[in-house]
Design a protein that fits this description.
single chain; 548 residues; alpha/beta; Rossmann fold; Helicase, Ruva Protein, domain 3; Zinc Finger, Delta Prime, domain 3; 4 domains; five-stranded parallel beta sheet; 24 helices; 49% helix; 9% strand; elongated
């Protein structure tokens, strides 16, 4: 019967454990000196050697001929513990035996002395799955165990273990195994199994294992049936992954904003059997490496996953800013987390790529921050033209062109008429009312606009609000307020006024709208005698009869 590689090559001594020297050396010295604790707590991620070290320690404390703290694996005690014939060493799965009744039965059985070995050892895997009542039942025997009893607890989620349990154990934290150590172990296993594993393939499997040697051996077990050498491309094909070149090409489409190219690449990879979740994970890993390269160019080299070569990393990092990479990484992480609940995984991946190519479609705060950062960069580099600030009338802005004396800043800028040979004719001084026939033109023009502009006609027909004066080829509409100016100063209305006045005056006329009083009205007001106003005011009291 075929045996999986991670079971076949499970470490049998402390020296065989890869990447956990800080733990194995301590356990070897304790076993050699006989200074063993009654309870151990092994913590760490999956596939780092927790259960293997627990089994090695169980054999080491009962070995009849230990070798420098390691079990000999040849004496009857070691052989019996390894093949499971000695029942004094028992391995329990807390995920399926998490009730208080199972722990009480274990506690009642533990008080009996072992029959075949020196110490009774209980290995409880995934101990964080125990219920609260089960933990409480385990406390008393952990605090005052018999001399022949040892507990070895293992967990991947330390935060779920009560503090009362942790304080009664010696705690050892298993770290993630380095990719170099995993690649070396894979090469050794491949050599023993007759697998032609290349160095690039071993490095790729080590990166994919994410610090777990068991995962790396399982991946090698999946790829070992391939014909010929097991290289990087063969592993990618067997695992349904895109690879560094395809991932870098897809990231280049995203960085350049080529939505069509990104969707085409996704469709081609999807048709080739690549998993969209794995593809988004590779993009996220590449975006993470690019972000580390941007934010920590000196000390972040050791943090890179190596999912892409150095040349592609240098080429991609030139066109992507740190805020843009944060937006991309956030969107990729969010989409990858939601794929498990997706109805159509490919559609969600396509929507993710569309938002990545055009961050305007992403309404998150990170996308807005990326767009603002781009605008700041363009403004700092001179690629963005910024209008000068508006100042009060009469104030001068440094570097801004001086306003023309004949064109006030509030007057609407209009292009010259086709009949005019050049720029607009400057406004000439307004002639006296006796020489300006425009005072008689405006009422007729306003009446003609009644059917065309019924909503504005009440303003045009009221002399207190709008008056028209002609001077120097410019027909000026003098209005009483800014509100009236906003109602009157419309392109279609001013064009109609220009056409009507031009027909009445016999020549091209340009229309302008200003706030103030018409010059003729001002002149008339200056010639008025104030004494007449006083006499008119006094006449109001002529008919008042005072009764005594």
């Amino acid at each position: 019967m075929y045996q999986a590689l991670y079971r076949k090559y499970r470490p049998r001594t402390f020296d065989d454990v890869v990447g956990q020297a800080h733990i194995t050396e301590t356990l070897k010295r304790q076993a050699a000196a006989g200074r063993l604790s009654h309870a151990y707590l092994f913590t760490g991620t999956r596939g780092t050697g927790k259960t293997s070290c627990a089994k090695i320690l169980a054999r080491a404390v009962n070995c009849e001929h230990p070798v420098d703290g390691n079990p000999c694996n040849q004496c009857p005690a070691c052989v019996g513990i390894e093949n499971g014939s000695i029942l004094d060493v028992l391995e329990l799965d807390a995920a399926s035996n998490n009730g208080v009744d199972q722990v009480r039965a274990l506690r009642d059985e533990a008080v009996y002395t072992p029959a075949a070995v020196r110490k009774r050892v209980y290995i409880v895997d995934e101990v964080h799955m125990l219920s609260t009542a089960a933990f409480n039942a385990l406390l008393k025997i952990l605090e005052e165990p018999p001399a022949h009893l040892m507990f070895i607890l293992a967990t991947t989620e330390l935060h779920k273990v009560p503090a009362t349990i942790k304080s009664r154990c010696q705690q050892f934290a298993f770290k993630r195994i380095l990719p170099g150590d995993i690649a070396a172990r894979l090469s050794l296993v491949a050599e023993r199994e007759g697998i032609r594993l290349t160095a690039e393939g071993a490095a790729l499997l080590a990166r994919l294992a994410d610090g777990g040697l068991r995962d790396a051996l399982s991946l090698l077990d999946q790829c070992m049936t391939l014909e010929g050498p097991v290289g990087e491309q063969e592993i990618l094909d067997a695992l349904g992954m895109a690879g560094s070149l395809e991932t870098a090409a897809l990231m280049e489409h995203i960085a350049a904003g080529r939505t069509a190219g990104a969707l085409e690449a996704l469709g081609r990879l999807y048709g080739a059997g690549k998993d969209v979740g794995t593809l988004l994970g590779e993009l996220a890993a590449l975006a993470r490496d690019l972000l580390i390269r941007k934010t920590a160019p000196q000390g972040g080299a050791a943090l890179l996953t190596g999912v892409c070569d150095e040349a592609a990393m240098r080429r991609l990092s030139e066109g992507l800013t740190a805020p843009r990479l944060v937006q991309m990484l956030s969107l990729l992480q969010r989409t990858a987390a939601e794929l498990s609940r997706s109805v159509n995984r490919r559609t969600d991946a396509e929507l993710c790529l569309i938002r990545l190519c055009d961050e305007r479609l992403d309404g998150s705060l990170t996308a807005i921050n990326a767009r603002l950062a781009r605008l700041e960069e363009l403004a700092a580099g001179g690629g963005l033209s910024v209008s000068p600030p508006r100042t009060e009338r009469g104030a001068e802005t440094p570097g801004a062109p001086a306003p023309q004396p004949d064109r006030p800043p509030w007057e609407e800028e209009r292009p010259p008429l086709p009949e005019e040979p050049g720029p607009a004719v400057p406004e000439a001084p307004v002639p006296p009312a006796s020489q300006a026939p425009a005072a008689d033109i405006w009422p007729g023009v306003a009446a003609g606009l009644r059917g065309k502009f019924p909503a504005v006609y009440p303003f045009l027909s009221n002399p207190a609000m709008v008056q028209g004066r002609l001077g120097g080829g410019v027909f000026t509409l003098w209005v009483d307020s800014e509100f009236t100016r906003g109602m009157v100063n419309k392109p279609d209305l001013t064009s109609a006024v220009e056409a009507a006045v031009s027909a009445a005056a016999g020549g091209p006329v340009r229309c302008a709208v200003k706030v103030g009083k018409a010059p003729a009205a001002q002149a008339a007001a200056s010639e008025r005698d104030n004494l007449d106003d006083l006499l008119a005011f006094g006449q109001q009291f002529d008919n008042i009869i005072i009764k005594e």
